[in-house]
Specification:
Elements (H helix, E strand, L loop, with lengths): L2 E3 L5 E3 L6 H9 L9 H14 L4 H20 L8 H12 L2 H22 L1 H8 L13 E3 L6 E3 L2 E4 L3 H12 L4 E4 L7 H6 L2 H8 L7 E2 L5 E2 L22 H11 L6 H15 L2 E2 L2 H4 L1 H13 L3 E3 L1 E2 L26 H7 L3 E4 L2 E8 L2 E8 L5 E5 L2 E4 L6 H7 L17 E7 L12 E5 L3 H4 L1 E6 L14 H9 L4 E8 L5 E6 L2 E6 L3 H20 L4 E3 L11 H9 L8 E2 L30 E3 L14 H18 L1
Parallel strand pairs: 3-12, 4-15, 5-6, 5-16, 6-12, 8-24, 16-25
Antiparallel strand pairs: 1-2, 7-8, 9-11, 10-18, 13-14, 14-15, 17-20, 17-23, 18-19, 19-20, 21-22
Helix pairs in contact: 1-2, 1-3, 2-3, 2-5, 7-14, 7-20, 11-20, 13-18, 18-19
Length: about 625
Amino acid sequence: MSDARCRHGFAATAEHPRGALAGLGALLLPPEAGGPSSQQLAGVLGGYLRRTPHPVGPAVRAVAGALDGAARLLDGDRLVDLDLATRERMLDRLASSPRTELLLDGLKALVLLTHGADAFADELLDRAGRDVPARPDAAMTVVPSTQLAATVRTDVVVVGSGAGGAMAARQLAAAGLEVLVVEEGRRFGVEDFRTTHPLERWTAMYRDAGTTAAVGNPPVVLPLGRGVGGTTLVNSGTSFRTPDRVLGRWRDRHGVDLADAAGFSGLLDEVERTIATAPVPADVMGRNGELTLVGAERLGWSSGPLVRNAPGCGGCCQCALGCPRNAKYGVHLNALPQACELGARIVSEARVTRVLHDGGRVTGVLARRPDGSALRIEAPRVVVACGTTETPPLLMRSGLGGHRQLGRNLALHPAVGASARFAEPVTSWVGVLQSAQVDQFHASDGIMLEATAMPPGMGSIGMPGYGRALVAELDRAEHYASLGAMIADAPAGSVRRIGGRTLIRYQLTRTDGHRLLRAIALMGRVLLAAGGDEVVTGLPGQPPVTDVEELDRVLADADPRRLHLTAFHPTGTARMGADAQRSPVDERGRLRGAEGLWVADGSVVPSCPEVNPQVTIMALALGIADGIVAHG
């Protein structure tokens, strides 16, 4: 299939003007009602699908083809050729069934993501290049894997360069060990964030082009970063300290002495110094965060600016695409360059396929380079830090996955969103992406509300309706403010290898489902108190509500299994602890049954950390690395 270049170099596919993807675009965003050109939308969507892993792209095309075929059977014309009224009758039929409505909403999210990112590409890049970067790219020793010999040797291999891997590498290098960090993704720099089409950034910087999901009822979308710096490249920058009550549980219930609040406090202090945390300044918070604080104040609820690691933030709301000011202080700007200054090296674009071992003793790792060739790294110590969803499959592939709890106990921080239309423009994408918190119900109910926007155009996936109604809402998108809520969930998921592939499962518990509905009720109250005219709950098939009584009435009959869930903080699949039966990793971070192997990422977190976990993961990795040095 040939390419057609979009703005700023994104390679769209040359789709047939009357093909199935064009029909899907016409169905959801009809050009007759002011929507985009169906052919152009099809090309951008096709270009995105080509970057997604199998079977996502073929599956979406197959569903679009089935809709097109149904249109021809029912009305004799291809979907794109039907008149607007006929397409809307088809939408009504699809939305009338819970099963087809879920499918329709998934297609809608893809269409809105790709269309919004392309339609707002000029604005995104104009804002990205408007100000000079807060700091230059940091000096790091990054070597593409193809430039290395087939076999290399070192003292320590750290698999993964995200929050945990970066901190472990720095501490080990500081102890005088020769450290090699192996990263599957490539290195990104500030010019990538300032000049590259947003869809190009999205597909390159997220695992599976942002389509990773946990299978369940309901399914959960799980975006995960990939590149030198890991998810810290694309997260919101929100930087909470681990609550003392959580640390107490880890110490008392899991036997993790490292989590004793008195000692762990020093580790948290060091992480905060490293990544330069501070509350969001008022001058860059943006109207979205301001309205959240107004609503909370009127309700008498505890709230305030979020703490973030973003010195010099300009409020461009592009954290999820890589900060174009280099203001968000991810580990690619601090811990990793500090490790390199101490002698560590980073090998990029190398996927570790196996941990090598002999007689129960680790001997190194085997990695695959982009050209398919093998890279062997020999080392007596291996620190696995490739993430909660990647660490268990790596250990299983390596013959080190014998512990029955490995891959289990997955917690995700499932999240829901709500938005409200205001009479005056809010322009939520001007300001910090995640800016303010309402923590009134955090300690008591495990519910945290965070004012969360998305880059221009890309936040439209939460807009209500389909077809003509959806186009009308997109036209007044700047009048919407948005909130997100996450809950401290039970460990209800798992990561497994099935047929050579990784499968993430997550079954929302009944209790957590109802807590998510309560979170929507709380968000609705904040938005109405702030002056919102009507609240979009995000519940399938439900129109906006205009008062608290109507909000409660709608939620009373809602089914949590029909919620649209996203999650950003997977933890717990190789939890650490003193009990050898319950924890694959011991209280010092060592994988049980393997000499010379430690785990230092979100997978070792004993239970849901209740807050955005970057600081927690870095502090745990710091403590684990200190233990490696102290105990040999």
